[in-house]
Amino acid sequence: MEIFESTQPSVMILDADPERVACLETVLNKDYRVRAVISGQAALEACTEEPPDLFLIDSALTNDVGVDICKVLKSNATTSQVPMIVIGREGDIQHQKIMHRLGAVDVITYPIYSLTLLSRINAHLAAVKQDRLESVHCEFMGYEASKHKCEVNTLQEITLLTLASLAETRDIETGNHLKRTQNYVYALAQHMKHHPRYSHYLNQERIDLMFKCAPLHDIGKVGIADKILLKPGRYLPEEFEVMKGHPKLGHDAILNAQELVGDNSEFLSIAKEIVYCHHEKWDGSGYPQGLAGDAIPIPARFMAIADVYDALISRRVYKTGMTHEEATQIIVAGQGKHFDPDLVDAFIELSDIFVAIAARFADSDQDIQKKEQMVAATIFGERM
Fold first, then answer.
1. What is the pTM of this model?
2. Fold adopted by 171-379
């Protein structure tokens, strides 16, 4: 014999009177799977295997039993969301009101007409079905939104890493410079997020975006000629003027991308601020705009101190790196001149963390040799 799983909704009757139960079963059996119990405890035990789709409860059960059953069912996680229809008599208004306040969705009084009972049950089951569909839809939309956000974040990170890697292939800096500076920025931002001057801006989302965007700070260097970009040693004044153009080159590239795709996201806005303004100085003597003080965008202020510190301690083809102590002296000397004074205070407090980041992402001899080969290839007109 084949067994088919029933798709009929189930109704549980809570009534101690066998005759009333029999009458209700006669009306309901055609359209519903019907179970009958005589107590709230029996109902809970029956619901452990399969909760019904709807309860029918007689309000005139002995004393306050109907009310107690209602309380029990509404306080249980398995049955609390199952709609409950109270069947009562005209003289039993008090119990009916109490049960309604406890969560019953409807009250049907005797005499009960079968069509009325069926239509009321169908209406409440349809409402439950609609609620479930809406809940599933909301969950699905939430999942899709979360999935989309994850995909966008992944695309952002891939884009950033690709652009940063492109800049790094032409820069005298090593790839670890990008890792170190973005971690310096992150450490500073986390430290400053409760500071009175910065708490309005530094929420976790922006801190994460600053971390992601930091490797783009020198993206404009892709527009600088190799003979200047890769020159070992100091620049001539006219060469330095050319180099000073890289923040605007990077800014314009991101701006063009924004206009092309119509993207005004904060992600690209922060990237633009870091790229364009990380060489500005607190006293207004920086470039390319000569911004001063709070006119310098916040992400760029963090990038400035991270970039200078790392440049000081890092080995280059043309120089040895300073010690942390030597670099710290220069950073402190630039307090209120080159750097935001509060960020210099934070840098000092985070001294051990900066040292740890520098050690974790230190340049290897192979990194330095690779850059030396690239510089030599450019100088001698070769590509090695």
1. 0.60
2. Hypothetical protein af1432 (1.10.3210)
